[in-house]
Amino acid sequence: MPRPQRCRRVCKEPVFSRFTPDTPTRLEPVILTVDEFEVIRLVDLHGKTHEQCARQMNISRSTVTEIYESARKKLAESLVYGKDLEIRGGRYHLCGGAAQSCCGPVCRFSAQESIPSTQEKGDACMRIAVTYENGQVFQHFGHTAQFKFYDVQDGTITASRIVDTNGSGHGALAGFLAANQVDTLICGGIGGGAQMALDQAGIQLYGGVSGSADEAVATFLSGQLNYNPNVMCSHHGHGEGHTCGDHGCGSHGCH
């Protein structure tokens, strides 16, 4: 008697469920199941091992390998032959994001996958980045391992996401922020070279800030952020602070 299949644990169903090539020819679509999508997301996007993926989906490692091989073949078929790709079906259950059932550290209900980093902002939207560590404004720009991005529309935060810098440091971080369409950076200490790189990238800097990252963004949006326009890495903004309300929000680009 065959062993019954274990239901695969998935964060939530994909936001986008159909991909169509730009071609007048319509062939039979390729069907990628939701559990196959989840394995591709964990292994290829987040770099998880098959063992880590198995723990998150509550299945065996050998099952992950089978699902992964099937999913990759389907993706190849869609790309090579120009077939529509549809994501639906499969044997799975949703974790729902609840603490007792959350599937793991890259659960899509967490803030870390609230928006893609390359999402277009739109003409009326701004993107704020904050050097980030454990909810606080990280104090060494050149060594920050994470940023928290905030998308803002009409003075209201519409989305946020924590992103890894993947080993980038100092001046390279300006390019990283520019590539992610960041308009404004809030940070602690920052060196002169990095400040110049940010200026060349057209990113407005508010340095010398400490405390909660979320609160820093909220006070920035209200025009009351305390920051140091002359911040350098050696001080980390512990000198006299300035309030963007005191200097005029327009002159500092505060919204």
Written account of the structure:
The chain is an alpha/beta fold. 30% of the residues lie in helices and 20% in strands. It contains 8 helices and 13 strands. The strands form 4 sheets. Strands 6, 7, 8, 9, 10 and 11 form a 6-stranded mixed sheet that branches. Strands 2-4-3 form a 3-stranded mixed sheet. A two-stranded parallel ribbon has the order 1-5. Helix 5 links the parallel strand 10 and strand 11. The longest helix has 21 residues. It starts with 7 loop residues before the first strand and ends with a helix. The C terminus is likely disordered.
Helix content: 25-40%
What is the number of strand segments? 13
Beta-strand content: 15-25%
* Biggest sheet overview: 6 strands, mixed
Overall residue-averaged pLDDT value? 79
Q: Using the CA coordinates, give the radius of gyration.
A: 22 Å
Describe the SSE topology.
Layout: E1 8-10, E2 18-19, E3 30-32, H1 34-45, H2 50-57, H3 61-81, E4 85-87, E5 92-94, E6 125-133, E7 136-137, E8 146-153, E9 156-164, H4 171-179, E10 184-186, H5 192-200, E11 204-206, H6 213-221, E12 226-227, E13 242-243, H7 244-247, H8 249-252
Parallel strand pairs: 1-5, 3-4, 6-10, 10-11
Antiparallel strand pairs: 2-4, 6-7, 6-8, 8-9, 12-13
Helix pairs in contact: 1-3, 2-3, 4-5
Write a concise synopsis of the structure shown.
The protein is α/β, with parallel strands linked by helices and 255 residues long. It has helices at residues 34-45, 50-57, 61-81, 171-179, 192-200, 213-221, 244-247, 249-252; strands spanning 8-10, 18-19, 30-32, 85-87, 92-94, 125-133, 136-137, 146-153, 156-164, 184-186, 204-206, 226-227, 242-243.
